[in-house]
Amino acid sequence: MPSFASCFPSRSTSDPLDSFDPLVSSSATVKGCVFCGASREKGFGIVHADDELIAFHDRTPRATVHLLIIPRRHVVSSVRELRNEHLTLLNSMRSLALTLVSSPSKMGFHVPPFSSVPHLHLHVFSGKHTFIGRFKYPISRREKGEKGLGWFVTLDQVEKIIQNGGTVNLGRG
């Protein structure tokens, strides 16, 4: 079983991932990442898997339905690294979420350092949130639905920030 620290990326200068393009590679994984290679055999409650995405139940659900959708390949470690070239991936993640959960109440990402696993993962919720879930996944909005100060950002907010040439951070979008 990997240690807790193994889910954080290594700063090694000899990292084999430094020289490849994860948008092209079909086997992009990061050694020690708990989401890379997610499978039922590894204890994941997988509800969908295809060549691009994997969806599974969160191990500590914070709502009646709490799914995580991840890219099969380790494309980026967090929402902060997303750029225009990732909009197609985000659209695929949204489409899958809407296929799996007919009317999600919330879809979004934690902003580092408040994300627990450095592998891009979309939280999809439906139904009532737990007490802790209400505080762990707050949506902070400004006018016109723009991101406010906060550690959780909705999929819509991420897309808008990226389309406007920005990057996601803890501050306002």
From TrEMBL:
SUPFAM superfamilies assigned: HIT-like
GO molecular function: hydrolase activity; nucleotide binding
Locus of motif Histidine triad motif: 119-123
Key words of the record: Hydrolase, Nucleotide-binding
HIT domain boundaries: 34-137
Active site: 121 (tele-amp-histidine intermediate)
InterPro entries: Histidine_triad_HIT, HIT-like, HIT-like_sf
Domain of life of the native organism: Eukaryota
UniProt protein name: HIT domain-containing protein
